[in-house]
Please model this.
Amino acid sequence: MDEAARQGSQELDSEQADSAGRDDNDGTRSPEEIRSDIEETRAELGDTVEALAAKADVKAQAKERLESVKESVKEAAPGSASEGAQQVKEKARRNALPFAIAAALVAGILIGRITRGDR
Model:
């Protein structure tokens, strides 16, 4: 818990203690007010327990992260193989020199292996 949250919690605790200790009437609280405070505290405690349980559930967090990554990959990846091939084709058309050099290198390696294999 960071310092600001701790101070905010302490301020709330002191306010609750002040309001619990005195009332506008004669300093006593009615049973209805006490019950209301108890129910409110129970609800807050339940929310706190749920939040802590969610933070402690590493497996669920990992699954959520995995789903998030899957979605981002689906969005970034091309929809089909033909779409991906089309993207490569367009890049080759725009940047012909690097692709020509790569093709010449691959051709040279293949020719070298073929001729060496004859010996």
